[in-house]
Design goal:
four-stranded antiparallel sheet; 28 strands; alpha+beta; about 750 residues
C-alpha cells in the first residue's frame, strides 16, 4: 500500500510487529503478529492491532505551519501509533472492532515530551555517578537562574512573584495590541458583510403595504336581524353595526380602540372610541390598522368617538360584552399569527425500523407542556429526534434544524442534560420555543439544601456518597454513549451533527437574568443550561463585547454582548467578580472577539438606535471622507488607541522640537529673572540685619538694643489699653458711638518703633 501510494520511504519506519494477542496474559509472546509467526487465526481470538511509524524526520516546511512558541519547533523526528482491539467472530469474515472511543479529529490528543536531555543525564549518571557528579552539578548551576542582584541574594519566592507580575503585564500589552488589530480587521469584515446584505436585500415594499378592511361586499350581506336604531355585533364577520341617522353602518373590530360602559343612571350610555390620526395609536393597536391610519392621515377625516344612549340597558350591555369579547379574540388571533409568522415548516420524521434505535429513558423535558412536568423517552431516528411523553405528547426535532447540540455532564450540578439550540423555532404547545432540553436529575433538589448535620464517619453517609458518585458516573456514560450514537446516525443519513461540551475551567459566575448562575463557554456559544430561562448566546452573532463598571473601587463588573443585528438589544451579564476579568478577556481574544472597557453603565437603547442610523459607523472618516473619526466600537475604549496616541505624540515632538527648544530657553530666562526679582525683594526685607552687620555691633550692643525695643513695646501696649478703657467709658455714658466717627488720636510713641521695623 505504501509503495502504491508513493510513500515507499515510510517502509523502513514501520514497527517490527503489528500487534499481539490478548488472553490470560496481557501480551502473549507466542502470538505476536509478525512475519515469523506461523499460527493461524481462529474464531474467538482477541488481538491488539498496532500500526504506526517511528523515527520519521520532520521537515522544515511542516514546522513552519506551527506557532513560533510551539514545542514542535524543537522536534526533529516524530512517531505515530494507532491501536484497536479486534475480536475474530465466527459469522463475519472481518473482525469486530471492540474499541468504542471516538476517532474523529476533535477527539485526538497528543503529548510532546521534552525530557530527552534529562533522560540522557539519568542514563549517563547510572554508568558513572561518581565520575560525572561534578559535571552534572556544574551543568545544573549553569542552567539555574542568577539570584544575586547588586550583591544581594534574592528570594526564589519573590523572584517567581516578580516574574508572574511581569508576565501578566506583558500578556496584557500583547492582548491590547491584538485587540487593536482585531478591531480593525473586524470593521473591514463588517463593511463587506453590510455591502453584501444591501445588495441581496430585496424590495420589502409589499410587506409594508396596508391591507384594506372589508366586512361586507354589499348591503344585502347584512344580517337579517339588523334594526335601524340598534347596536348589532356580528361575531362571524368581526364587525360592529352602528346606527347613524337611522342607517346601519358596519365598522370592523380592528378600528375600535376601546369601548366604555359608564354606570347607568336614568339612562344607559355606550361610548366607542376609534383609532384616529393625530393621536398616539398605541403598542396594542393592530399592525394593519396602524398602517391604515398612517396611509389615510394626510387627506381623510376620522371619527374619534361615538356615544349611544338608551333607556333600556339590556341592548347596550349585551353589545358592550360582545364587543369586548370580539376584540379579545381578534387580539389573540393576531398574536398567534405573529408567533407563527417566522415559523419554518418542518420535514416529516422518518422513523427507523430496520435497526435498533438509540434511546434514553426517563427524561424530563424543558420547557414543559401546559405548565406540567413532562417526562418521557428520547429516540434518535433517520432524520431527527422524537420525544414521547408519558401522556402521549410528541415533540420532533429535525437534524437540519439543530444549530447547536450541547452535552453537559454532571460534575457539580444536580443534573446531566442534552440541550438543543434550534435554527428556527418550533411550536411547543401554544408558544414558540428555540431552546429544548432533556435532563435527568442525579439527586433530588430537596436533598441538596438539606441543612442536617451528619458525621463524616457515618457509614450510611459514606454509602450514600459512594452511590451518588456511581450514579453520576453511570448517567454521564449513558448520555455520552447516546450522543455518540446520535452523531453516528446523523452522519450515516447524510446530516452533520456534533455535540459540544462546555469548558468548565473557563466558567464564571454572573447574572444574565435575575439570579446568579454559573456561565460556561463552549466551542460556539456562551451558555447557562441548568437554570431557567436558558442563557444561550451564539458567538457568531456577537459583534462586540463591552465591559462596564471597570474601576479600581468596584469588586464586580458587567459584560454587554452586542448583537450584529442592531435592531435587537444586547445581551447582558451582570455582577461578574473582578478575578475572572483577565481569563474572560483572554478567551475573547482567542475567539477573535473584540472588546472594550468603560467605567460606567451606558444607555444601550439609545446607543443602538444611533448606531443603526449611521451608515458610516464602521468607517474611519466622516461623510466628507477627509475628517477622521473613530471606526466601529472604538469610541467605547476607555483610554483610546495607545499606539495612535504614542505615534501622534512622537510626530508632534519631531515637528515642533525646535520651537519647543526656543520656548524652553525663553522660559528659563524668565524664570532666572523672576528668581532674581524675588531674591531682591527678599533681601529688602532684611535691610536692618545688613545694617547691623555693616556697623559691626557686638553681643552687648545687640542685647541693649533688644531691651530698648522691649520697653517700647510695653509702653505701646499700655497706651492701647488706656485707649480701650476710655472708649468703653464714653460708650457707657453717651450711648453707642456712631459709625464713621473720628478715629482716636495718633500714637506718637509707636512711631519710632514703626520706623525701626521698616
Amino acid at each position: 500500500f505504501l509503495k502504491s501510494s508513493e510513500k515507499s520511504f515510510l517502509v523502513r519506519h514501520l514497527p517490527k510487529n503489528l500487534g499481539f494477542s490478548i488472553g490470560l496474559d496481557f501480551r502473549d509472546p507466542n502470538l505476536v503478529l509478525s512475519a515469523k509467526n506461523s499460527i493461524h487465526f481462529r474464531p474467538g481470538m482477541v488481538f491488539t492491532l498496532s500500526v504506526g511509524f517511528a523515527g520519521v524526520p520532520l521537515s522544515d516546511s511542516a514546522k513552519s505551519a506551527a506557532n513560533s512558541k510551539s514545542a514542535v519547533k524543537d522536534i526533529k523526528e516524530y512517531g505515530l501509533l494507532i491501536s484497536d482491539m479486534v475480536v475474530i467472530s465466527e459469522n463475519s469474515k472481518s473482525g469486530e472492532v471492540m474499541t468504542k472511543h471516538g476517532k474523529s479529529l476533535t477527539d485526538i490528543s497528543y503529548t510532546i515530551n521534552d525530557d530527552d536531555d534529562s533522560s540522557d543525564d539519568d542514563d549517563n549518571g547510572k554508568g558513572g555517578a561518581a565520575t560525572n557528579g561534578d559535571e552534572e552539578y556544574a551543568r545544573k548551576v549553569a542552567k539555574a537562574p542568577d539570584n544575586v542582584v547588586n550583591g544581594k541574594r534574592r528570594s526564589s519566592r519573590l523572584e517567581s512573584t516578580n516574574e508572574a507580575i511581569q508576565n501578566a503585564h506583558e500578556g496584557t500589552a500583547e492582548r491590547e495590541r491584538r485587540q487593536i488589530a482585531l478591531m480593525t480587521r473586524k470593521n473591514e469584515e463588517r463593511l463587506r458583510e453590510l455591502a453584501r446584505s444591501a445588495r441581496n436585500k430585496g424590495d420589502d415594499g409589499e410587506s409594508d403595504k396596508a391591507e384594506e378592511l372589508r366586512a361586507y361586499d354589499r348591503t344585502k350581506d347584512y344580517p337579517d336581524s339588523v334594526l335601524p336604531n340598534q347596536v348589532k355585533v356580528d361575531m362571524v364577520n368581526q364587525c360592529v353595526i352602528l346606527p347613524i341617522c337611522g342607517n346601519p353602518v358596519p365598522f370592523h373590530i380592528s378600528t375600535i380602540k376601546n369601548v366604555v360602559l359608564p354606570d347607568p343612571d336614568s339612562a344607559t350610555y355606550l361610548r366607542i372610541n376609534f383609532y384616529t390620526a393625530g393621536m398616539a395609536v398605541g403598542k396594542d393597536a393592530p399592525a394593519n390598522m396602524a398602517k391604515l391610519v398612517q396611509k389615510y392621515a394626510p387627506y381623510a377625516s376620522f371619527i374619534r368617538e361615538m356615544t349611544f344612549r338608551s333607556l333600556d340597558s339590556h341592548n347596550l350591555t349585551q353589545a358592550f360584552r360582545q364587543i369586548s369579547e370580539l376584540r379579545k379574540r381578534a387580539r389573540q388571533k393576531e398574536l398567534r399569527e405573529l408567533e407563527e409568522a417566522n415559523l419554518v415548516k418542518q420535514a416529516k420524521l422518518v422513523r427507523t425500523k430496520t435497526e435498533r434505535v438509540p434511546r434514553l429513558s426517563d427524561l424530563t423535558m424543558r420547557p414543559v407542556f401546559a405548565g406540567r412536568k413532562t417526562q418521557g423517552n428520547l429516540e434518535a431516528h433517520s432524520n431527527g429526534l422524537r420525544f414521547i411523553s408519558m401522556r402521549g405528547e410528541i415533540v420532533d426535532i429535525m437534524y437540519p434544524n439543530i444549530k447547536h447540540a450541547i452535552f453537559q455532564p454532571c460534575e457539580n450540578e444536580i443534573m446531566v442534560l442534552v440541550h438543543f439550540h434550534l435554527r428556527h423555532p418550533i411550536m411547543l404547545g401554544k408558544k414558540k420555543q428555540q431552546d429544548i432540553q432533556f435532563f435527568t436529575e442525579v439527586i433530588d433538589a430537596s436533598q441538596t439544601v438539606d441543612a442536617g448535620r451528619r458525621s463524616m464517619y457515618d457509614p450510611d453517609e459514606m454509602d450514600d456518597e459512594q452511590r451518588e458518585r456511581q450514579l453520576r458516573r453511570k448517567l454521564n456514560e449513558a448520555f455520552k454513549e447516546f450522543c455518540r450514537k446520535v452523531e453516528n446516525v446523523a452522519k450515516k443519513n447524510g446530516f452533520s451533527l456534533e455535540f459540544d461540551i462546555p469548558y468548565r475551567d473557563l466558567g464564571f459566575n454572573g447574572n444574565p437574568h435575575k439570579e446568579m448562575v454559573f456561565i460556561q463557554p463552549t466551542l460556539n456559544c456562551l451558555v447557562n443550561l441548568t437554570e431557567t430561562p436558558f442563557f444561550v448566546v451564539n458567538l457568531s452573532d456577537v459583534d462586540h463585547v463591552h465591559f462596564e463598571r471597570v474601576t479600581f473601587m468596584s469588586k464586580a463588573f458587567d459584560i454587554v454582548l452586542i448583537n450584529k443585528d442592531f435592531s435587537k438589544q444586547p445581551w447582558r451579564v451582570d455582577m461578574i467578580p473582578n478575578d475572572d476579568k483577565e481569563s474572560i478577556q483572554e478567551w475573547l481574544t482567542d475567539m477573535e472577539l473584540s472588546y472594550t472597557e468603560g467605567p460606567m453603565n451606558l444607555n444601550w437603547k439609545q446607543i443602538m438606535g444611533t448606531v443603526a442610523g449611521d451608515d458610516r459607523f464602521y468607517m474611519d472618516t466622516e461623510e466628507d471622507e477627509v475628517t477622521k473619526k473613530e471606526a466601529g466600537w472604538s469610541f467605547l475604549r476607555m483610554f483610546g488607541n495607545d499606539e495612535e496616541e504614542s505615534d501622534d505624540g512622537d510626530e508632534d515632538d519631531s515637528e515642533f522640537s525646535e520651537g519647543n527648544d526656543q520656548e524652553s530657553e525663553e522660559s528659563d530666562e524668565e524664570e532666572e529673572q523672576s528668581e532674581f526679582d524675588s531674591e531682591s525683594e527678599s533681601e529688602s526685607d532684611y535691610d536692618a540685619d545688613e545694617d547691623l552687620e555693616e556697623q559691626g555691633m557686638d553681643w552687648d550692643d545687640m542685647e541693649r538694643e533688644a531691651a530698648a525695643a522691649d520697653r517700647q513695646k510695653r509702653k505701646r501696649d499700655d497706651v492701647d489699653d488706656e485707649v480701650d478703657v476710655r472708649a468703653k467709658r464714653r460708650g457707657s455714658r453717651g450711648g453707642a458711638q456712631r459709625r464713621g466717627s473720628a478715629p482716636p488720636p495718633p500714637r506718637r510713641k509707636a512711631a519710632p518703633i514703626k520706623r525701626r521695623r521698616r
